[in-house]
Amino acid sequence: MRILASDGMEKNAVAALREQGHEVVEQFYEPAELAEQVKDFDVLVVRSATKVRTPIIDAALETGRLKLIIRGGVGIDNIDHEYAESKGIKVMNTPRASSNAVAELAMAHMLSCSRFVSIAGHTMREGLWEKKAYKGIEVNGKTLGIVGYGRIGQSLGRMAIAMGMEVVAYDVFHVPGIENEHMHYVELDELFAVSDFISLHVPSLEGKPMVNAETIAKMKDGVVIINTSRGTNIDESALLEALNSGKVRAAGLDVWATEPCKNTELLNHSNVSCTPHIGASTTEAQKRIGAEIVDIINKFFA
Hints:
The protein is about 35% helix and about 15% strand.
């Protein structure tokens, strides 16, 4: 098979595929060029940078060679997957591989927001010693609201409970037997109302962003908002206004409405802990993603 890894691939996975006789091309193409290149590949592997929209799928159909698109990660909203599937191109992802890595980053942002880790370290490097300015809060004893209680949400929930937090979760699907004395499913409005911290773990949603001026108004004063899901799930202007007013104490953001992020006022805010979409960027997660990609390809073409 000819395999195009347009956003790169873990080196062990590339080596394994090449040892099996496959040709692996690691090359990013802009959309117009990708539409031409994809005609000559059996498999397209992407992460978050490459967008596989209808024109690219239509171009692939001209030769009919492309049979499989793999998203190395969880969300597949950067792929017009329903359209691809309707045209006979299978779309798959690697949901298990990066769950723990994303959950750990969400927890890292929670702690950074609670204890001013990001801004305090930054001011130290500027030669300041502002010890009295950074009186934080503890996560122990607080309530964490997790929106989307799939693999990532459940992993974060376990970490939070281990740190002495109470967890409330909203999800359209309730996993049976998962509730306990420290974790309960609730409706979304109740989650907004009772949570000291709110962490988003849902796909990109149509319509209004989930966190907007209306939903922020339903939250506790001084709430901390964490987003490692999709940047479009938050109305950035509403969040910035809430940060400035103090309604939102802090925000930990790994994802942005536009990437690379152009919202300098938000990312430079003193109460924002920010990272450039690195949720799955751990050595361990990338190895698991690579191994899962190899397994998907082997099973699909068996």
